[in-house]
Amino acid sequence: NQVFAPVATIGHTRTRERLLRFGPEQLEFFRHRQPLLAAEFDQVRLTPPNLTVDSGCDLYPGGLKVEVRHLGPAHTDGDLVVWVPDERILFAGDLVFNGWFPTAAEADIDGWVRALSALESYPVRVVVPGHGPLGGADVIRRLREYFEGLKAEVGRAWAAGLSVEEAVAVIRPKGFDDWQGRERHAAVIRRVWELATSRRG
Predict the structure, then answer these.
(1) Where do the structural domains in the chain lie, given as residue ranges?
(2) Burial category of 129 from C-beta neighbours within 10 Å (exposed 0-12, middle 13-18, buried 19 and up)
(3) What is the pTM of this model?
(4) How many CB atoms lie within 10 A of CB 71?
């Protein structure tokens, strides 16, 4: 956001709150995690959004309708998508990873599946994902299918009495060999497991 100041930046209310509360701590974490980029991080000035929304808003720059929407907790609790209906372009942010396994450390997986299902109802021509190249509507479908398949596999592993680490060892990402970042798959399994077992008590 600092690059575009003083232009108004839009974010979810919770995104602004989290950035103000945890931003300095996260910046320090990444500075130590990526020591070769430490000097770059020294140039970062935390700039929270200066216009916040909860469910969304409509904008009309130059008369073009732009819809900003929050589809519920998913990748985070403050995800926003931007839909330009006249151009059928969807800026999906981190709700969509194209060609990459997703990161899901704090994700609501069920909410993410619901959000992806909602996005599949859009007559999309181009998807601009948070990670990976531009794509079409199929990239939304594939990520939803990945999560749904993983949830089913985790459910079977739990029913069979496996531990989470045993599940990580046996659950393979079938049909997604073309995706990068395969090391993330184990972390997604653990998150799905954590959420599923917390509901079961």
Answers:
(1) 1-52, 55-200
(2) buried
(3) 0.92
(4) 19
